[in-house]
Amino acid sequence: MGYPNQPHQRETAVLSKYFGDKEARSLEGWKKRGGYKALEKALGMAPADIVNVVKESGLRGRGGAGFPTGMKWSFMKPGDGKPHYLCCNADESEPGTFKDRELMRWTPHALVEGCAIGAYAIGAETAYVYIRGEFTEPLYWMEKAVKEAYSAGILGKNAMGTGKRIDVHVHKGAGAYICGEETALMESLEGRRGNPRIKPPFPAVSGVFGMPTTINNVETLIAAAPILMNGADWYKKMSLSSPKSTGTKLFSVCGNVQRPGTYEVVMGFPFKEFLYDLCGGPPHGRKFKAVIPGGASVPIQTMEEAEATLMDYEGFVAQGSMLGSGGVIVIDDGQSMVSVIARIARFFAHESCGQCTQCREGTAWTTKIMERIRDGQGTIEDMDTLLDIGEQMTGKTICVLSDSCAVPVISGIRKFRSEFEALIQGRRFHPVIEAVA
Amino acid sequence: MTPDLVGGLESPDYASHDRAAHEPYTPVFTGSVKGELDELLTHYPTKMAALLPALWIVQRERGWVSDEGMAEVAELLDLTPAYVKGVVTFYTMYHQHPVGKYFIQVCTTSPCGICGAEDVVKAFLRHTNAGELGVTSPDGRFTIIEVECLGACGFATPVMVNEEFIESVTPEKVPDLLARLA
C-alpha cells in the first residue's frame, strides 16, 4: 500500500494491508487482524482440496517465473513414504526488488501461516524459510514470529491441536545472489557452496536433502491464506486483463521516481497510470527515459513500451519485457543508459557462481566492454561483440544468471543504441543539456 | 515517514575481536554456545546443513572466521577443514580476516547507483579516514565496503553498520550517522 508513502486509493491492499502497522507484527496483533484463521481452516481440509483451491484461484509464482502454484504443489505425490519439504525463498536479492522485505518485517506471522499452510498442502512436516543474511530486520521479526508460534502451539508436533506436525525453521543466508535460484538455495541450505544444480531431476522429485521439495516465494505463500479464506473465485475476479494473471501483485518501485515504495495493485493495472499517478511521476524537472519493470534481469522497456503495458505476466511480455519479481527500476533522462547497464553487468559478474564457462567468462567480459564504452574507450565493433557474447550466454548454462546478464545488455543496445554510439564517438553524456533539449 | 530502525540488536564487540586475533585460539562451541549448536542440529536431517548457521555463530563470537574457527566447525560437523573453507569463501558475508569495529556496507548496485550511492561511499571514506574500500581506518574503527544490492532499493541508499540496517542515507547524513557510533 504505497509504503512508506500514504496508501493510494487505486491500490488494492490484500497482502500489504498492514505495512507500517507495528501491532500486526506480534502474534496477538496478528490474531486480532484475523491471523491463523486460514491455517485453522486449512488443517481441517484434505491437503488435495487445498491444492485444488489454489489451482482454481490461478495464483502464479511471485518470485519471477510465474509458474502456477497449485500445479507446482500437485507435483508432490502423497504417500510416497519419503519426507517432503517446503522451502520458502526469502533470498530476495534481485536489484529493484524489496517487497518480500516489507512482507517479512511488517507481517512476519503472515509468512509463518503461509508456510504452515503450504507445508500441510504438500504433505511436508518441515518448512525452511531461507532469508538472505543482509536482511537483519526481517530475520529478527521472522525468528520472533516463529518462536511465538511455537509457544502458542501453532507450530510443532501438535500444530493447533490437530495432532499434525508442522515445523518452520528460519535459515540465514550468507551473501550470495545466486542462492535465490531454487536449486542453489537447496545446495546452500544443505551446507554447500550455492552452485545451481542441473535439472532434471526437478525439486518435486529430488530437492533439498534429496527429497521431494516444493519451493515458493514469500509473496506466493502469503497469498495462500486469503485465497483459502475468501475462495478461488474472489481471487480470480481480481484481474483487469488476462485470465491467466489473477489476484493482486506487489510492485516495489525505485530509482528516479517521486514516490518510491511498495505498491499493491490488481493484475492488469495500466502501467502508465501506475508510474505517473500512484508513484508520482519523475523527479521535478525530469522526464522518464526507461523502465526495468521486473528486477535487473528482465529486458529494459522504452517509455513507449512501458506506457502501453498492462501490468500482468502477459502484458509485460507483449511490451518487450517480463513481470519478473515486480521490482520496478525507473530511469530518468538524467541518467546514461550505458552507465546503468554497465553497473548491472558488474552486478552479475560479481554474483556468477563460476560453474559454467559462458557465465563465468561472459559476465566478466561483458562488464569490461560495457565499462570501457562508458569511459569513452569503446569502439563501434564493441557493440557487435557484446551482442555476440550475449547470444552465447543465453540458454546455454545450468541456471539463468548468465541469460540475466545478457538481457539488459542486448535490450539496451537495441533500444538505446544512439547513447552507445555517442559515447563511442567521443561525445560525453551531458544529462542536463539533454534533459533541457 | 521514516521507518524505525530495528534497535536492540546486539552488535558484537569488534575491538575485542581484533585483540583476540593475536591470542591463542580457544574453542567457540563450549557451554551455552555448544547448546545453541545442538539445538540447531535438530532442525536438519544432516549435520552438514548446520554449517552456515555454525559459521554465523563463530563470526558473532569472534568477529571473523579464522582458519582455526573453520577447523573447529569442521570437527563438530564431521566435515574437513578444506571443505569448510570452500564454503566460507563462496559467500561474501563471512569475514576471513578481522575488520574494523564498525563494518559499513554501502549498496551501490544500479537502483541505488542512479540515486547517488557513489557519493555516499565517498562521504564515508572521507569522514572515517578509511582512505580506500576494504581497508580499516588507522584507528581500527571503520571498514567500508561497497555491497551488491541490499534489497531496499526504494530507500536509496541503504547502508549496513554491523547488524544495523539504515535506510535512505545521503552524503549529508553521514557525519551525524558516524557521530552516533560510539
Fold and architecture overview:
The complex is a heterodimer of chains A (about 425) and B (about 180). Chain A has helices at about 25-30, 35-45, 45-55, 70-75, 100-105, 110-120, 135-150, 180-190, 220-230, 230-235, 270-280, 305, 315-320, 335-350, 355-375, 380-390, 400-415, 415-425, 430-435; strands spanning about 85-90, 125-130, 165-170, 215, 250-255, 260-265, 270, 290, 300, 310, 325-330. Chain A has about 425 residues and is α/β, with parallel strands linked by helices. In chain A, the strands form three sheets. A five-stranded mixed beta sheet of chain A has the order 6-5-11-8-9. In chain A, strands 3-2-1-4 form a four-stranded parallel beta sheet, sandwiched between helices. The longest helix of chain A has 18 residues, at about 355-375. The two termini of chain A are about 35 Å apart. Chain B has helices spanning about 15-20, 30-40, 50-60, 65-75, 80-90, 110-115, 115-130, 175-180; strands at about 100-105, 140-145, 160, 165. The relative contact order of chain B is 0.14. Chain B contains eight helices and four strands; from the N terminus they run αααααβααβββα. In chain B, helix 3 crosses helix 4 (about 65-75) and helix 4 (about 65-75) packs across helix 5. The model of chain B is unreliable at about 1-10 (pLDDT under 50). Chain B has about 180 residues and is of the alpha+beta class. Classes of the chains: A alpha/beta (about 425), B alpha+beta (about 180). At the A-B interface, helix 7, strand 3, strand 5, strand 11 and helix 14 of A face helix 3 and helix 6 of B.
